[in-house]
Amino acid sequence: MINRRTLTKSLGAALAVSAVPGTATADTGRRRYLIRNGAVITVDPVLGVLPRADVLIDDGLIVAVGPDLRARGAQVVDATDMIVLPGFVNTHHHMWSALGRNFVADGFPYFAAKRATSTLYTADDVYRSVLLGLAELANAGVTTVHNWSNNTRTPAHADAELRAHRDGFLRARFSYGHVDQMPRDVPMDFTDVDRVRRQYFADGSYGLVHFGVALRGLSQSTEPAFFADMDAAVGRGLPVSIHAGQAPPRIVDAADYERRGWLGPKTLLCHYVTALDSDMEIVARTGTGFSWAPHSEFLLGAAGDPRSAFLRFRQAGVPVSLSSDATSIAPSDVFETMRLLPEAGFRDVLEMATLNGARALGLGDVTGSITVGKRADVILVRTNDINLAPGGLIETTAVQASTANVDTVFSDGRIIKRGGRLVHDVGRIIRDARASSLRIRREAGGILTP
User: Fold this and answer.
1) Chain mean position to CA 353
2) Triad 376, 377, 382: Cα angle to 5°
3) Which DSSP letter does residue 415 get?
4) How many CB atoms lie within 10 A of CB 176?
5) Does the structure show a pLDDT above 60 at 69?
6) β-strands 49-58, 61-66: how paired?
7) pLDDT class for 3, splitting at 50, 70, 90?
8) Residues 157, 199: Cα–Cα separation, whole Å
């Protein structure tokens, strides 16, 4: 049993507990919870997989992990026939376009749909879209997301996305990005970046959200504009995320970036299908974050075999994290994403979906594993559902699961899904997203006309 020192005596006492009924719904307060009798995949290098154990949560913190825990006044969450594991981390998700998941069509792929609609999103639209995306992620067991906001059209749009994060209950990085379709030779205006940082992140975070910037890279900007963007971001000490390219030419030269001081733990490279072996070695050596979106790399990658690139990144020692890119490209179902990477092994893909993602976002000491002292981002997956029965090896079963099997989700110690039901007003979220989607489609016209 692993205990926090200050709780040793109380954990050893015989105590009364009250049960949380399986039908519980909205309860977003931080309380004292005892997750009892689950198969626990900790993703902690010391604890590993515990075939039967309990997890004690107190005021949003994981305070004990082990068998037969006792806790005074704790509400019991029965995890019998369930797998308990860390919440998933999605390290690259364009949430402003979540409501546009079905704007694509035959002969009208992702980039065409984005060009036809991105300028039409109002601040209300992006609020609704981000909230829709957050609810979908929570439903799928994702407790941390990197909101790669690459269509931050006005200060009101940035404020709207942050309001959605306030209402969405998930841990996140909000990366302020450019205005989609802005001229390639025009650098980003950091005036509002500074305003948002000052207004929302003066103390380092906005609730569960921390701040960064998302830059276009050379795929969407000229070299002088991109260099100006990088200098502005790095000079402010902000975490930086870059689209590193899925198709030739190779637009990121890791050796050059290292010489310029642009690589390291505060930088996250997304895609990078074009990387040479030498690039991969530099990414590994500098501790630069790396996000891989398997669906997107296969759908949009044109730089050779994405599977080969993925295996080479792993061989170079790069800690791969996983992402979904955009909802019209890939689902937010991390289980499906993990199953696209069988060569990595079940244990490794679970680490990519949790701890590696947390580390890529600078949150490795906060979340990503069921470790005493970390925040309680924890999910429970039913194993007696028809698609997982009759059970078997624990890590294999976890990877073979789906969103439908996610029974309970804790985000920072708050229950945001219980008994398969979200605490969100899902009906309202869908109605609002539908209204925005219909208006955007009418304005876009053409193939999107309702």
Assistant:
1) 9
2) 115
3) E
4) 27
5) yes
6) antiparallel
7) very low
8) 15
